[in-house]
């Protein structure tokens, strides 16, 4: 590891003896951003009564303005939530579902979101319908899958911007255009979007959009924004003092808790910019592609029939046939890799096994070489 590489590892406060190739799972805030959050936490504890009673509302609103500026949206339509799951729950809780209603999600959709849809469907007598498409499906096939899954009973369609298990960029604008006459509401799950994709959120044509800032925009964990277009109102999951103060403000204060992460979000966004902004994202994309090839060549697997539009900083690597043949085997592979001090995401999808690798500012080419060597020993060695 070079001196500069070690400095980047230190900048993120990561264990230098571990290869970290799964940034997309939980993200990690740089040390400077964590210190900024700690400073807010300490300030709150110095005079908690005044801080919470007088100072906090304006500080949260200002932090929301920074986040909205980064995303290119109106701060009045940007609501603070802790993560995508919380935002999904808020939207589902705001829908008056009836027996026979349908909720659509892609087969590549995030498992926790699918569980939330299933829960609300079971309570109301609605049902969940899946839009099915294969890994590597073309954009027109993906759009057709969502259109085919909809019916006159469809109330809500959840469309991933970047799929979690397969790191696929979904053509959301084309999906919303195809569904424009269906009467269904469209909700974009952009958990991996902020900091990876330079989207015009309002122009996507959806009714709701949610994105985590703590994955690829380097803010503290628990920082996400729920956007809704005017007229598509949503009530927060926690109803508190600012409920009647307008859409965004209603989410600003869900009661007494630690707001340091939201208040330090601007520091994370500033770090993203200092790391190169979109030029930095392009560098990560090149590193992810190179790393994907390195591991694939070591395993002797083809990169054909993978996502035509992969996430910039995330890639799939197919595993050799017969190596991971069921979902329960992903945990054992994860543990085997973790024992070798490598953190990466094994995936079983569509009957096949993959590794989902990532590229973050602290990664180097040597990280993928290390993964390739260990995976060869596990999958191909004697």
TrEMBL record:
Instruction: Reply yes or no: does the keyword Transferase apply.
Output: yes
Tell me if Ion transport is a UniProt keyword of this record: no
Output the superkingdom of the source species: Bacteria
Please state every residue range assigned to the domain named Aminotransferase class V. Answer: 58-231
Molecular functions per Gene Ontology = transaminase activity
The UniProt keywords, alphabetically, are: Aminotransferase, Pyridoxal phosphate, Transferase
Output this protein's name: Aminotransferase class V-fold PLP-dependent enzyme
Q: Which organism is it from?
A: Trebonia kvetii
The top of its lineage is: Bacteria, Bacillati, Actinomycetota, Actinomycetes, Streptosporangiales
């Amino acid at each position: 590891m070079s001196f500069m590489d070690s400095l980047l590892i230190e900048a993120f406060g990561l264990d230098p003896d571990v290869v970290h190739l799964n940034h997309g799972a939980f993200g990690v805030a740089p040390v400077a951003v964590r210190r900024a959050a700690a400073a807010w936490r300490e300030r709150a504890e110095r005079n908690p009564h005044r801080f919470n009673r007088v100072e906090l509302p304006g500080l949260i609103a200002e932090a929301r303005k920074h986040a909205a500026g980064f995303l290119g949206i109106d701060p009045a339509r940007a609501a603070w939530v802790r993560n995508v799951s919380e935002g999904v729950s808020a939207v589902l809780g705001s829908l008056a579902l009836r027996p026979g209603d349908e909720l659509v999600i892609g087969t590549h959709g995030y498992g926790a979101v699918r569980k939330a849809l299933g829960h609300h469907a079971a309570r109301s007598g609605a049902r969940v319908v899946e839009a099915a498409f294969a890994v590597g499906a073309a954009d027109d096939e993906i759009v057709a899958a969502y259109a085919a899954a909809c019916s006159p009973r469809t109330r809500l369609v959840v469309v991933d911007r970047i799929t979690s298990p397969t790191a696929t960029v979904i053509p959301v604008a084309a999906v919303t255009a195809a569904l424009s006459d269906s009467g269904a509401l469209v909700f974009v799950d952009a958990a991996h979007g902020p900091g990876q994709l330079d989207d015009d959120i309002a122009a996507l044509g959806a009714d709701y959009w949610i994105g985590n800032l703590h994955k690829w925009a380097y803010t503290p964990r628990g920082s996400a924004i729920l956007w809704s277009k005017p007229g598509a109102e949503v009530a927060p999951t926690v109803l508190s003092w600012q409920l009647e103060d307008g859409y965004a403000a209603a989410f600003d204060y869900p009661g007494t808790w630690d707001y340091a992460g939201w208040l330090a979000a601007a520091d994370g966004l500033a770090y993203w910019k200092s790391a190169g902004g979109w030029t930095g994202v392009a560098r990560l994309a090149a590193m992810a592609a190179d790393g994907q090839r390195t591991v694939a060549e070591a395993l002797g697997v083809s990169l054909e029939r993978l996502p035509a539009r992969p996430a910039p900083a995330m890639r799939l690597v197919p595993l050799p046939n017969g190596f991971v043949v069921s979902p329960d085997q992903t945990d054992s592979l994860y543990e085997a890799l973790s024992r070798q001090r490598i953190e990466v995401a094994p995936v079983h999808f569509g009957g096949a096994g993959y590794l989902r690798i990532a590229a973050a500012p602290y990664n180097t080419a040597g990280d993928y070489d290390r993964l390739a060597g260990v995976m060869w020993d596990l999958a191909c060695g004697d």
